[in-house]
C-alpha cells in the first residue's frame, strides 16, 4: 500500500521532534553535569580559603574591618600556615585575625612578604585545617574553565566568579591571567579548576611598579585578573618559612631603549659594585645564555630572570664587546649598592658623528681641572676605546664619584696625550649657552588627542633636520592661557630649535592621576614625526602639575632625563627617586612664589636631599619669560652632559 504524502510528512515531523527532544535532554544533562562540577569544585576548594580581618596603621581601629576588609587567605598546611595577597594587609598591620568557617577568630602572625610576587605569609595556631589540592602547572591550559573564590563577606560562604584561563606566564613567568572577576572581594583567595584543585592565589598585579602592592587594582572586576601559581609558592615555602622575607633577585644590568623588549640583550650599563659588575660583565657585553638556556632578546632575558629571588645562583654566558666568550655564576642580591651619577664634566658635540668630541667643559668639573678643552676628542677610558659618545656615556655610568680613570685625549695640533682624573658627582645646574642662538621661525598648533579631553599645544621651530631637546609642560589647573599667551611664553625656547608640548588638565581645579596617559600619548605622537634627542627629554610643571610630572617620571624613568618642578605645594616626603645607571635623571627646582600656597625651596631643602639625583635650583621671581626660556634651553641643552 502506498503511504500518503501526509503520512510521510507526519512521520518526518515525529522523527524531528524526537531528535529535538533528545538534543534538549542531552543539553540539559550536560548543563546539569557542568553545574554539578562547578558546585563540587567550589565546595572542595573553598574549604581551604579562610577570612582575614586586619587592623592597619592609618585606619581607625573602630572601623578597621570595614575600611580594609574582610579579605581572604589560602591554607598551606593543616597546622596553620597561610598565604594571602600583600595588598590585603595595608601598611604596617597592627593586628591580623583569621576567622575560620566555624566562626572562631584566631590571631595570626605575619611571618614575612614575598615582594617578588606580592604575597604575605601568615601563621596561626590551629590544627586540622583543610589543605588545598594543588593543580600541576603543566596541566594549566589557556581556555580552561576556572573559578575565583574569596571569603570577604562570610567565613562559611564563598564569593565566587567563573571564567577561563586567558594567559599563562604573565609578568615574566610569575602569574596566571584569568577573565574571572578579581577584586578586593577575593584578593588572597583561590583560583581553582573544575576538579576543585587550586591553581593559584588571587591578587592585583600591574606594570606601574614592582614595589607597589596595589598596582593592578585599577583592573578591579574588569576581566583582567591574576593569580600566583600555588605550585610555585610551595616550591619556595620551606625557604620562606626560614628567612621570612623573599625578595626579587637583582644582578645590576641595564639595557638600552625605553621598552625595546625585542632588542638583543646587549648590556647598556652595569651597576657599579653589583654581582654583574663583579663577574666581569661590562657595557657592550652580549648575554648569550642563562642557566644553559639561550636568550635572543631582552624579553627572553626577563622571562629567564625576573621571577628569581635574592640568593638564587644564576649561570650567565656572554660575549664581550671584543668577541671573547665568558661564563660566570652570579648570586642575585636583594639590594644594590647606593649609586651616585659620576661625571667627567663635558657636554658632547652632537654634530660630530662617530667621535666622542667635547662641545663644552662644565666649570669646576674634573675635566676642567685636568685641562680638557672644548674641541678635544676623547679616545679611550682605562684603555677601553671610545667609538662615540654612546660608548663614553656607558663607561662613565659604570663608575662612581671619586673613582680614578685614565683618559686618552687627542687635541688638534698637539696629538694624543693621557690624563688621570678623579670623577666628580654630576651637577644639574644650567650651563652657559652651548651654541649660537638660531632664532628660527616658530609654529604653534594644537596637538590633537582624540581619545582624551585635554587640550595640548605643540610649539616648535619649522626646522626638522637635526635632533632636538623636548620639554613637556603641565600647566597649572585654573590658569588656562589663550593661544597667544601660550605662544608668547614658549616661543623663545622653541625658536632655538627645541620642541615644547604644553598639556592642560581636563578639569579646572586639579590634575587627575590617569592623565599621565595623556602625556605619554603626546610624547609618542611627537617622537613619531620629529627627531627627538632621547638624552634630552624633560618634563615639568607648576604646583599640582609638578606633582603629576613626578609621578610620570617615577613610572617611566627610561623616557626622561630631566624633571622641572616649579612652585611645588609640598615636600617629597614619600616619593622615591634614586639615581640609576641606565636612566640618569636631573632635577631642576624653580620658584616664583607668586602666592602663599607655595613653599620656598630653602624650606624644602632637607626633604629634597633624600632624592639621590643631581639637583639644581633657580629663582624666577625677577626674570621675564625670555630670560626663563634661556635658562630652560641651557638646562635642556646640557641634559646629555657626562
What global shape is seen? globular
Q: What would you report as the Rg, rounded to the nearest angstrom?
A: 30 Å
Biggest sheet architecture: 8 strands, mixed
| Class by SSE composition | alpha+beta
Mean pLDDT across residues: 85
Identify low-pLDDT runs: 58-67
* Beta-strand share of residues: 25-35%
Going across the major beta sheet, what is the strand order?
Answer: 27-28-30-29-31-32-33-34
Task: Summarize the amount of helix as a percent range.
Answer: 10-25%
Q: What's the number of helices?
A: 14
Distance between the termini: 106 Å
Query: How many strand elements?
Result: 34
Could you give the topology of this structure?
Elements: H1 5-46, E1 49-56, H2 64-68, E2 71-75, E3 81-85, E4 93-99, E5 105-114, E6 119-124, E7 145-154, E8 157-169, H3 170-173, E9 175-178, E10 190-192, E11 198-203, E12 225-229, H4 230-235, H5 237-243, E13 253-255, E14 267-270, H6 275-279, E15 286-290, E16 293-294, H7 298-305, E17 313-319, E18 325-331, E19 342-343, E20 346-348, E21 358-361, H8 366-369, E22 377-381, E23 384-385, H9 389-396, E24 404-411, E25 415-422, E26 424-425, E27 442-447, E28 456-461, E29 468-474, H10 483-494, E30 499-503, H11 516-529, E31 532-542, H12 544-555, E32 562-566, E33 586-591, H13 601-608, E34 615-619, H14 625-637
Amino acid at each position: 500500500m502506498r503511504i500518503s504524502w501526509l503520512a510521510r510528512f507526519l512521520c518526518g515531523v515525529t522523527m524531528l521532534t524526537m531528535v529535538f527532544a533528545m538534543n534538549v535532554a542531552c543539553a540539559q544533562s550536560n548543563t546539569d553535569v557542568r553545574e554539578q562540577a562547578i558546585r563540587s569544585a567550589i565546595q572542595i576548594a573553598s574549604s581551604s580559603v579562610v577570612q582575614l580581618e586586619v587592623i592597619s596603621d592609618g585606619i581607625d581601629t573602630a572601623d578597621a574591618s570595614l575600611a580594609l576588609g574582610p579579605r581572604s587567605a589560602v591554607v598551606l598546611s593543616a597546622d596553620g600556615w597561610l598565604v594571602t595577597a600583600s595588598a590585603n594587609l595595608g601598611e604596617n598591620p597592627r593586628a591580623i585575625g583569621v576567622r575560620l568557617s566555624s566562626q572562631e577568630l584566631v590571631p595570626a602572625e605575619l611571618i614575612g612578604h614575598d615582594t617578588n610576587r606580592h604575597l604575605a605569609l601568615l601563621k596561626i595556631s590551629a590544627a586540622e585545617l583543610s589543605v588545598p589540592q594543588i593543580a600541576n602547572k603543566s596541566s594549566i591550559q589557556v581556555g580552561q574553565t576556572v573559578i575565583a573564590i574569596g571569603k570577604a563577606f562570610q567565613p562559611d560562604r564563598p564569593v565566587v566568579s567563573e571564567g577561563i584561563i586567558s594567559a599563562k606566564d604573565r609578568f615574566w613567568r610569575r602569574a596566571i591571567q584569568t577573565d574571572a572577576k578579581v577584586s578586593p572581594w577575593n584578593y588572597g583567595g583561590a583560583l581553582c579548576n573544575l576538579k576543585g584543585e587550586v591553581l593559584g592565589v588571587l591578587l592585583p598585579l600591574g606594570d606601574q611598579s614592582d614595589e607597589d602592592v596595589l598596582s593592578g587594582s585599577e583592573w578591579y572586576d574588569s576581566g583582567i585578573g591574576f593569580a600566583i601559581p600555588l605550585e610555585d609558592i610551595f616550591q619556595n615555602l620551606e625557604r620562606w618559612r626560614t628567612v621570612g622575607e623573599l625578595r626579587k633577585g637583582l644582578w645590576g644590568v641595564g639595557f638600552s631603549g625605553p621598552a625595546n623588549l625585542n632588542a638583543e640583550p646587549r648590556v647598556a650599563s652595569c651597576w657599579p659594585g653589583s654581582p654583574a659588575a663583579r663577574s666581569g660583565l661590562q657595557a657592550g657585553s652580549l648575554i648569550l645564555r642563562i642557566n644553559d638556556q639561550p636568550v635572543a632578546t631582552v624579553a627572553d632575558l626577563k622571562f629567564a630572570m625576573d621571577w628569581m629571588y635574592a640568593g638564587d645562583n644564576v649561570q650567565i654566558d656572554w660575549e664581550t664587546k671584543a668577541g671573547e666568550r665568558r661564563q660566570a655564576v652570579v648570586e642575585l642580591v636583594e639590594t644594590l649598592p647606593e649609586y651616585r651619577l659620576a661625571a667627567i664634566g663635558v657636554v658632547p658635540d652632537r654634530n660630530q658623528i662617530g667621535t666622542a668630541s667635547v662641545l663644552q667643559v662644565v666649570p669646576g668639573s674634573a675635566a676642567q681641572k685636568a685641562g680638557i678643552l672644548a674641541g678635544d676628542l676623547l679616545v679611550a677610558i682605562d684603555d677601553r676605546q671610545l667609538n662615540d659618545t654612546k660608548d663614553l656615556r656607558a663607561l662613565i655610568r659604570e663608575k662612581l664619584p671619586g673613582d680614578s680613570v685614565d683618559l686618552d685625549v687627542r687635541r688638534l695640533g698637539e696629538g694624543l696625550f693621557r690624563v688621570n682624573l678623579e670623577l666628580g658627582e654630576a651637577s644639574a645646574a644650567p650651563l652657559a649657552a652651548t651654541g649660537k642662538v638660531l632664532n628660527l621661525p616658530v609654529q604653534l598648533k594644537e596637538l590633537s588627542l582624540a581619545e582624551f579631553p585635554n587640550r595640548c599645544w605643540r610649539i616648535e621651530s619649522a626646522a626638522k633636520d637635526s635632533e632636538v631637546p623636548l620639554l613637556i609642560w603641565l600647566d597649572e589647573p585654573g590658569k588656562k592661557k589663550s593661544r597667544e599667551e601660550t605662544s608668547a611664553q614658549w616661543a623663545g625656547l622653541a625658536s632655538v630649535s627645541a620642541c615644547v608640548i604644553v598639556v592642560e588638565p581636563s578639569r579646572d581645579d586639579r590634575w587627575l592621576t590617569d592623565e599621565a596617559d595623556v602625556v605619554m600619548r603626546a610624547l609618542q605622537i611627537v617622537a613619531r614625526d620629529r627627531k627627538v634627542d632621547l638624552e634630552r627629554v624633560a618634563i615639568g610643571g607648576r604646583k599640582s602639575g609638578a606633582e603629576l610630572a613626578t609621578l610620570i617620571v617615577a613610572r617611566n624613568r627610561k623616557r626622561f632625563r630631566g624633571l622641572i618642578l616649579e612652585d611645588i605645594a609640598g615636600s617629597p616626603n614619600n616619593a622615591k627617586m634614586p639615581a640609576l645607571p641606565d636612566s640618569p635623571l636631573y632635577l631642576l627646582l624653580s620658584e616664583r612664589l607668586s602666592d602663599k600656597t607655595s613653599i620656598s625651596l630653602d624650606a624644602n631643602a632637607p626633604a629634597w636631599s633624600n632624592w639621590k639625583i643631581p639637583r639644581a635650583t633657580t629663582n624666577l621671581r625677577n626674570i621675564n619669560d625670555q630670560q626663563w626660556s634661556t635658562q630652560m634651553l641651557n638646562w635642556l641643552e646640557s641634559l646629555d652632559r657626562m
